[in-house]
Design the sequence.
């Protein structure tokens, strides 16, 4: 029987390939806690805005970020028997990944299983765990009944209708909907009236982020440049990379 392990990020995908060398690893290369979910083209445009000018943009599809799911559907349709393990944690991103996966796999004939990684060092993310840890957790995989699959698929569709572009989990694992400015205070708290490397400001904001809802450096750089555009911050050279430009409060 074929075995598939599904994740949303490259770091976890790498660990899964080590933990399960004979399995197929599917990686969406996406963070579904951010951006529009209804239209692939609009989602691609959203990420292009985030990654614009960034030195090391994430590995994302150039056009339709949902095409990978269609390709997976096609691949699964050619297989007689396989198991699909969907990896998630208590973070907003992986809460969403579980539901997005159920949306795209709602009609598959193959059995689905949810594998939850517990927090490690206080952080909620499958990427926190080495391959040996992931290998242990798969023993506790929970079968996703057809009714549950449909419930999560419907939840995904309802979430996609909402206007908010940021989704986070609270301390109880409940999904909350927020504006993209939700974490701006972390960046502003790290800024001073003295010139600082933008990368240091972003790094401090990442370190102080909610452990349930980690923040990517590309997104924080995007918000930092928003402060420059709105006159809150001054940058010594906006054309420079995050690692080399300096910013300060005006």
Sequence:
């Amino acid at each position: 029987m074929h075995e598939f392990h599904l994740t949303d990020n490259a770091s976890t995908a790498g660990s899964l390939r080590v933990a399960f060398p004979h399995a197929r690893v599917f990686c969406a290369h996406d963070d579904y806690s951010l951006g529009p979910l209804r239209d692939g083209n609009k989602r691609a445009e959203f990420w292009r805005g985030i990654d614009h000018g960034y030195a090391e943009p994430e590995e994302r599809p150039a056009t339709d970020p949902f095409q990978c799911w269609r390709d997976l559907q096609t691949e699964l349709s050619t297989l007689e028997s396989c198991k699909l393990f969907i990896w998630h944690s208590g973070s907003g991103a992986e809460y969403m990944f579980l539901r997005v996966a159920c949306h795209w796999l709602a009609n598959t004939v193959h059995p689905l299983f949810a594998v939850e990684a517990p927090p490690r060092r206080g952080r909620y993310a499958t990427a926190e765990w080495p391959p040996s840890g992931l290998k242990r957790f798969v023993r506790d995989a929970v079968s996703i009944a057809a009714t549950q699959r449909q419930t999560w698929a419907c939840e995904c569709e309802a979430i996609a209708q909402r206007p908010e572009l940021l989704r986070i989990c609270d301390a109880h694992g409940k999904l909350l909907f927020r504006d993209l400015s939700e974490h701006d205070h972390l960046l502003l708290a790290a800024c001073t009236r003295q010139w600082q490397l933008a990368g240091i400001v972003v790094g401090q904001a990442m370190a102080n982020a909610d452990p349930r809802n980690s923040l990517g450096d590309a997104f924080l750089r995007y918000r930092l440049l928003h402060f420059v555009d709105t006159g809150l911050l001054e940058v010594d050279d906006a054309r420079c990379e995050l690692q080399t430009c300096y910013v300060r409060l005006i």
Q: What stands out?
A: The radius of gyration is 19 Å.
